[in-house]
Amino acid sequence: MIAQRFALGLMTLFAASLLIFGGTEILPGDLASAILQNNATPESLAAMRKELGLDRPAATRYAEWLSGAAHGDFGHSLANKREVANEIAPRLKNTIFLALYAAVIAVPLAVGLGLLAAINQGGVFDRVVNVVTLMTISVPEYFLAYLLIKYLSVQFGFFPSLANVTPNTPILDRMTLTFLPMVTLVLVITAHMMRMTRASVLSVMASPYIEMALLKGLPKWRIVVRHAFPNALAPIISVVALNLAYLIVGVVIVEAVFVYPGLGQLMVDAVSKHDVPVVQACGLIFAAAFILLNMGADILAIMTNPRLRHAR
Amino acid sequence: MTVEALTPDAIAPRRRRSIRLFGHKPNLTAWIGLIIIALNIAVAVLAPLIAPYPQADIVGDAWADPDRLHWLGLDNLGRDILSRLIYGARLSIGLSSLITGLAFVIGIVCGFTAATLGGWVDAVLSRIVDLLLSMPVLIFAFMILSVLGTDIPVLIGTIALLNATLVFRLARAVAMTIASLEYVEAAKVRGEGTWWVISREILPNAIPPLAAEFGLRFCFTFLLIAALSFLGLGIQPPLADWGSMVKDYRDMINLDSAAPLYPAAAIAILTIGVNFVVDWMLSIHSRGHGEPA
Questions:
Q1: Sign of the torsion formed by the C-alpha atoms of B21, B27, B30 and B31
Q2: Closest Cα partner for B132 from B146, B121, B143, B119?
Q3: CA nearest B151: which of B191, B102, B95?
Q4: At a CB cut-off of 8 Å and minimum separation 6, what does B204 contact?
């Protein structure tokens, strides 16, 4: 089962790479006309196509691109001719740092709050948390981010509003600089994860063995923690992974708000400059992270739930 | 006796004149949501009547503080922020509604086709949807926009397509299950015509989940356009929606001005309103199947 899921994940990744490459190839208005914009004459277009190797068949170029990408070679940027891989590496590190920083805090917080709400089902805490999380989910990330900047940074000056880290920033400074972006991300994904944790614990709570435990006279928290939680673990794990995958997208916007030199910013700049090789490389990395997280979630769910190990 | 008459709704006395939606009374949060949505639509439709100034007019100094004539102050070019917000509602809400509608047409047509034809058509359509959904939506939108540029028709097409994939999944599932439900069978056995079955049995029961889905898709579209505009990849000047207004005013936050918060709050309030209504519609939907809410 696990091997099967792994193979499926790899296939999806391959298909996604095809989509990324094909999408930027097949769509009307190819690379050459994108670069030349309004200066395109038939002659200059033909010359540019030749320079970029666009006159060769797409399949060959796809094979080259994919094998290059597998070795970490994404070609050259159109905007500044530098190697895409060198552009990406420090940015990717920054993005991973921010995502991990947020995840380390958000995951335990969300699961804990979800359990508390489930224990307290229908109580004041539960209802307040329900409305607050619904609002946090609905609100765009940049609204939360600017609220935080306005109150925590500008008015009281607790934290810096710009996360302008350099590769040499020491870890502690880095954590202070990225504190507000981290809090923004934590707020958004915690709300999602917490609601799902609560829902999956509650759906397990409806089963007969929970009633049995209740009739035995066990305290409510013990039932939730010892009886319901282990069985709700599989859905919770997949929710956590889904939200980490969501982090990848949220990160793009949060990076823009805090001017954080991450991969998302790089991609946004590349999109507005029509710098296709950079867009392709960033897209492939984001898609790979997304697909791998989803795959990891399914595999973990299979491992925690023996019932899923046998084919239906 | 028709099957319909057995639902609790039909038994309850209908004499009490209370406002109902889909046969249920909205709760408090749903009411708040409905009012927010109605206000937003009214503002968008009546923009030229409500707005104190034309949206492009320069009426004072750049970044003037709020005063009695300009409630939210002036922006980077000295335009009235409140008026621009009111006109921005037209673009933000109008465009999102258009895209969501388009996505529903594409998604429902393809979903129903896949469900009824089955076979390779279903397989091909479903795999295409799986493929499109294997990537984060924002990233996929980036890919397309990087090649095609950020014209409004491109935005509409891209986002409608991405949205249609999710509608497709729902429509396909709905079409697969609804036809096999007992009350539909009962109606068929009674000898009702196909049109009667669809309009009186299937549609009333499919509307709450579809309406909820419409609300969710609308929020998704609305937030995606705003996010793209905020990143500078959506609506381009001189047009302005709420997302691009946040972008234009962003630097002011460091000078302790709330300017970027107004358009961001407008986005937030509308999505919260829609989500409140959707949440309520989903809860009556699950109650309809006999589960306590």
A1: positive
A2: B143
A3: B95
A4: none
Residue B190, min C-alpha distance to chain A (Å) = 37
Shortest Cα distance from B95 to chain A (angstroms)? 18
Tokens for A199, please give them: 């829902």
Q: Give the CATH class of A85-263+305-309.
A: mainly alpha
Write down how long chain A is: 312
pLDDT digits (tens, 9 = 90+) for A80-133: 667 777 888 888 888 888 888 898 999 899 888 888 888 877 778 888 888 888
> Does the distance separating the beta carbons of A291 and B268 come in below 8 Å?
no
**Measured CA angle at B251 (ends B259, A79), to 5 deg:** 135
Say whether A139 and B254 touch across the interface (CB within 8 A): no
A60, two tokens: 């060959």
CB A21 within 8 A of CB B140: no
pLDDT in tens, B187-218: 778 877 767 766 677 667 777 777 888 888 99
Of A16, A134, A274, the CB nearest to B279: A134
CB contact under 8 Å between A146 and B254, yes or no, is: no
The answer to whether A95 touches A251, Cβ cutoff 8 Å, is yes
Q: How far apart are CA B232 and CA B240, in angstroms?
A: 11
Find residues 91-130 of chain A whose CB sits inside 8 Å of chain B.
Answer: none
| pTM, to two decimals | 0.81
**ipTM for the complex shown:** 0.79
Report residue A280 as tokens. Answer: 């392709």
Any A CB within 8 A of B224 CB: no
Secondary structure of residue B150 in the 3-state scheme: coil
Q: Give the SS3 label for residue B21.
A: strand
Which one is predicted more confidently, B104 or B27?
Answer: B104
Provide the shortest C-alpha distance from residue B131 to chain A (in Å): 7
How far out from the chain centre does Cα B269 lie?
13
Q: Hey, is the C-beta of B214 within 8 angstroms of any chain A C-beta?
A: no
CB-based contact B268 A146, cutoff 8 Å = no
Give the residue-averaged pLDDT of B48-54: 82
- Quote the tokens at residue B47: 């923009």
Class of B74-289 in CATH: mainly alpha
- Select the residue of A15, A139, A257 nearest B272 (Cβ to Cβ): A139
Would you say A292 and A241 are in contact if contact means Cβ atoms under 8 Å apart?
Answer: no
Cα B17 to the center of its chain, rounded Å:
29
